[in-house]
Amino acid sequence: MSAQTQPCSWVESANGHSDFSLANLPLGVFSRDGEQPRGGVAIGDYIFDLSAACEAGLFEGRAAEAAKAASASSLNVFFALGASARKALREALQGLLVESSEQRERLQGMGEALLHPMNKCRMHLPAKVGDYTDFYVGIHHANNVGKLFRPDNPLLPNYKYVPIGYHGRASTIDVSGATVKRPNGQTLPSGATEPSFGPSKRLDHELELGIWIGEGNARGEAIPISEAGAHVAGFCLLNDWSARDLQAWEYQPLGPFLSKSFATSVSPWVVTPEALEPFRCAQPTRPEGDPQPLPYLFDERDQQQGALDIELEVLLQTQAMRDKGLPAQRITLSSTRNMYWTVAQMVAHHSVNGCSLQPGDLFGSGTLSGVTTDSCGSLLEITAGGKQVLELASGETRTFLEDGDEIIFRARCQREGYASIGFGECRGRVLPASR
Fold first, then answer.
1. Is 251 annotated to bind ligand?
2. pTM of model > 0.85
């Protein structure tokens, strides 16, 4: 909906809200003190209680089925219903929340039984994650990291032919606001011939887009690239915390293990494909000489409309900043346009061997860095592997994260003529390692 034709909501805080206007309506799972988690929708500074709305009989038909599924303590069943149910619920919600709604007087009369102040609610993981796969589609990140280890050949030969990924640990995915304990593990100190054990000294963040899977596929049946987009239920922000020193020792020959499995943070709101429709764009043209994707990874419509234009931001706040009352400092400004592969290509590739995806599976895009230092999505890149310091406004410096540091991700879509769409925040504060 364009800004000129975008109707207002009777929920006044939604009008002009940078994240949660009537054009967004992301879904999540929340609770209030003493109550069980249940599904809700972000609208302005409030959460629209889907359980209360269902009890009041505010939905009909396909929208009623979708609302009931989305009102549960996890969104897995709702994700499984697919795009038609999601669209029906979105249309019904916009009809209820618009300023001219025929139900306005009744809805306003329900008060806090229907609308809960967001700052008085606790957010939970939106869905039960059965499987988690982390990809590596940020080509500038791949180049930047590759140069640290292979200056003359940063990208391995397979990178431009296949969406690289690895299977992560679903049990340690947590929602924004949860603390992150510094991991212990083996590292090989510089100049040493044998490893030592202890807390990671090179703890890092990774700026990623999270992709929630909706409808799955039967085992043995690949999802065609032309249908892959229909299997995506929504998007979030994802921080794939990384212990770089553990990773350097363990990753050969099978890739990340303990260096990644200790924590992954996600933002609590699921932004739907429908809300992001105005911000779709063409996949960036591949540089001359790059191979065209193999046929199972290539779809002309996906190349023209399969990318997303989302601005991504990373902020850092240290304990000293909090003590001095200083705000978090932005250290990165990047974009999802730095993805070498589209989301549909990731889905198609993941299933091409017959692997079955399930509702609530989660993908991470991989770190989405740009070409400049201030657009890098990890401290590994910003500090050139710890060789350069990041100077902070507080007078402190960082090469990697220290105890008490908090990393904050934000994201927003903006386009002239359209209401902005935001993702909320993905936060995590580092705690000392266990002794």
1. yes
2. yes
